[in-house]
Design a protein that fits this description.
The structure holds 3 protein chains of 3 kinds. By secondary structure, chain A is α+β, with helices and mostly antiparallel strands. Chain A contains 18 helices and 15 strands. In chain A, the strands form 4 sheets. Chain A has a 5-stranded antiparallel β-sheet, sandwiched between helices. In chain A, strands 10-12-13-15-14 form a 5-stranded mixed β-sheet, with helices on one face. A 3-stranded antiparallel β-sheet of chain A has the order 2-1-3. In chain A, α3 runs antiparallel to α4 and α13 runs antiparallel to α14. The longest helix of chain C has 40 residues. The chains are: A alpha+beta, B mainly alpha, C mainly alpha. At the A-B interface, α7 and α8 of A face α1, α8 and α14 of B.
Amino acid sequence: MEELTVTLFERIGLLLIVAFMMTRIPSFRYLLDRELNYKTIIYYSLIFGLYGMICVHVGVVITDHVMTTPLWTYQLNDNQMLVGSTLVAVVIAGLLGGPFVGLGSGMIVATYLVLLGGDFLVANSLVNPLAGLFAGFTARFFSEERVIAPAKALFIGMFTPILHMTLLLIFTEDPNKSIQIVNTIGIPLVITDSIAIAIFTAMIRVALNEKEQEAALETRRALKIAEEALPHLKQGFHFQSAMEIARLLRNELKIAAVSLTNKEMVLAHIGLGSDHHKQGEPLQTVLSFEALKTGEIKIARNPGQIHCNDPGCPLHAAIIVPIKQSGEVTGLIKLYFKRSQQIRAVEIALAQGLGKLISNQLDVVAAEKMKSLIQEAELRNLQAQINPHFLFNTLHSVATSIRSNPSLARHLVIQLGHFMRMNLKLTRTSLIQLEKELEHLRAYLEIVKVRFADQLTIDYDVEEGVREAMIPPFTLQPLVENCIQHGLKDVEHGGEIRIHINQKGNQIRIEIQDNGKGIPEHIIHKLGSQPLQSQAGNGIGIYNVNQRLINLLGESSGLHFKNLKPAGCCISFQIPEKQEQRRDVG
Amino acid sequence: MNLTYFVFFLFILTGTLIITYWAAKRGHTTHQFYTVAGSLTGFQNGLAIAGDYISAASFLGITGAIALQGFDGFFYSIGFLVSYLILLLIIAEPFRNLGNFTLGDVIHARFRGNSIRIMTAITTIIISILYIIPQLVAAGLLIRLLLGIDYSTSVFVIGTFMTIYVVFGGMVATSWVQIIKTVLLMSGTFLIVMIVLSRFNWNFFDLVDSVSRGTPFGEAFFYPGHLFSNPLETFSLNLTLILGTAGLPHILIRFFTVKNGPAVRKSLITATWVIGLFYMMTLVLGFGVIAFVGWETIVSIDHTGNLAAPVLAVVLGGDFLMAFISAVAFATILAVVTGLVLSATSSFSHDIYNHIIRKGKASEAEQLRIAKLTATAVGVISILFSLGLKNINVTFLVSLTFVVAASTHFPVILFTLYWRRFNKTGALTGMVSGLVSSLLLVILGPHIMNPEQGWILQDAVIPLYNPGIIAIPVGFLGAVTGTLLSEPSSDQDEVFDRVLLRSQTGLK
Amino acid sequence: MNRDMEQQILHSESFQNLLKQKKSVIIPLTIFFVSAYFLLPLAVSLAPQWINRPLFHSFTWAWGLAFFQFVMVWIIGMIYAYKSKKWDRLVQQIQHLREDK
């Protein structure tokens, strides 16, 4: 008995080598991860059935009490019995894949054994499906883990050879012979099978752990990138911030090069090939333009697709990820590789994730900015509601005309009340109907007309049917106020303000012109893209109006400034006629 | 020492230690230690109850009894099984709704004060230790027989292991050891049944025929025999069996290890199926012994019949099978004694130490520490007793346990749950009278007082091997008298109303 | 829970109903199985000729009664489980009573 044990252990060593090799094959490990469904059950059963057949041949043949260890057995005679370790395969199948896999692989092994022939056929073959089934059910019952602990597997593994022995005692023509055999091979099989099962289970666990650790590492990396990129993203998508982000990405991802672009040119390029891929360079890659247009990831797999003019460029493959802000593509992140084989599923998934992450971050940043703009507008307007100067001046006009022209005074007071009421009402929403904004403007203009009656004429030209369009509140009135405060400040009389609103195609065009001194050259570029301190200090700045227009209605709705000949300036912008649903901000 | 046996026993010991290790990692609260925080499923708990209940006496003893005496042996099985209906229909759910960890908790839910807790703790500890001793002795003998290890060493080893399971693993380890034991026991027994039947070509009645030819009794083997010649004795035994289970503390605490009423029901029903099927299988085993070993042979090997099952195994499958069955018997013993150690421990450390000595103010850590110390003490005491009682026939202790349980605990539990007029005095007198009468009657009975081999060499005063028929009514009477002779408690209605509501609906 | 609410629930229709239903099932079942159980030892001791008549094969009526009790335990278990489900619903109703107050 001891000799048999040692021999079996030796042979099982072979089995374990095969098992170990199996756990190194990536597709096997991939299989371990998959959800158990109809197909995987069949795959598993086949694989383990095959393994079981190997186990058969690793066994020992007993012929009339003599043990032999042939390399390959084709047929067994009636007085020969194969003592194999098939239970190792079948039990592992059950432990990993559940009762059906155990059953399936067991049946494969059983069939093979029947074909092989030999003594005690019923017992030897029947034990396999039974053991597989048993292992499958008990694993479920005793453990909730994906792969059962080796210690528990040891005990389940111990039980199946016992089952085998009792089957030998049940399905037998010659009880005495059975008893002898059982007492010879029983303990060796119990020991060797259970230990082999435990070791195999431990191997599988190790393989799974590796996979899990890999996944954990990737996740941690992605999160780190997102976290560290945020402060840079807050500054917007410019040259400086793009450099920092590109550097961060390259350090973390450890790839050949990273470049960030906006819609026209490269904002930053860090890594290999930075000698000829430079900041400010216009975009060349066809795939980049496609990505910008479609908003989908594109992969360049050879230098031809990268369209780099430099023949010595080491970058041969790239993943191009579009970045979106408020749903519109604003730029690209390009991940460069030296060889196309380096682009694996991991990298693509990472790129996708990054794209989404950074787009989200940009949206968050924009939303924050929007919120602060609206708050600023609210604040300013709250001030404007009780703006002392405007109020005093208007009241002064009321006072001066109340005796001489009571109806005019009355008109002024009503318009003032109207204006202030509208100030209150409009604060809450981010977009209102053009109709309402015009009312607000008109109330303001009524007052202005009276106050500056001899200095200023106002020409008001609004096309019919434009009233439904949506516009941010406090857009028109501040712009007109700006003309009065700055453009027409020093004009004693003859000042004109013209307001044109008409429909062009599916856009509504709004123009505010004055014939004042115009906007100084050095300011006109910065207007709208940077806040400016205004001396009068109560208006809602041009910057604020412009930013809200752009954020809520898109780039195309931004303010355009032009100085007119011979004098004056024109502020113009357009808004969509019908408002498609945009994300509500704030 | 035979390698085969050694390997099997080693596996059992290692396996249970691994379970204990895993359990130790999980259990850090008293809730875990005493009741697995109620997290066992009904099915698992049912297996554990069966594991707690089916002792080596059932497995080895009943198989042997059926082999030697036919119907009389089977008779015990009926009593063991039907007693579960008393639990299921009358006791289990109300009991669970009233308590937390121990029997003391349940009685205390109705009767405040320390005296009750002290009393239940005493009775629980007595029952537990009385039950542990015959198990340990049997285990010692078994190991000596199979492994050739000296009796004292065997008892010491087993006692130590059972203590380790409880100290480090608490109820978690205990439960899982019992669950695994049940699985092993059922499958092992089932496999042997299969072997027996296969030799008769799967014809059960051929087996029966062989049995009716195989004993000197002939057909009369199937008739009830000498156990029933004395109607009083018979009735007494049956009364004890049906009421005893409902008083066994280690079974009662298993109602706390699941999370709600339906789970309790499922546990009990699972247990009845397992236990019922098991006893059916022991019938086949017993018959198998006659068929394969032979009546005369078994009588000459061991006239008590305790070795019938292992001998059957050796005949059917040689050393391998016998080693397996012995290992199963060994696991059986381990599981039961572990459960008993736990119940004695919880009774002392929860009822006496935590509630009485420390007035419920002990911290979790302290309670756990004391529980573990208590378990160690219980283990040590049991080992010492068993070592001392080496050569004494201690199987009567098993039936004594049932008598004490039936006469001391059952009346009090029943009245606590259902009798309005019941009061604290009644509870105390009930328990005392039950305990004293059972102990006294056994001492005065033929187990102890036996002219040939008893401790006291005289004719028994009360010639009843099983004094249940006297002790149990005495227990009831004691409870009733104590109640009626004393004043009803001032808040009787209020308290009983609360208990009724809570026990029937769980509402506090 | 205070005394008043206790009393209300105790005297409520749901609770009384629950008790009544339980009694009507448990008491008859208990009487039945206890009687069946003691029938065997009593018959064996007091009327052996009657109980030892053959039933099937070598088994007597005593065995029949014995096997019957096994089946009885399982069946009564199932009946009890079935009825308990109904009682569980009643208990839920009673619990709702308490929450409503």
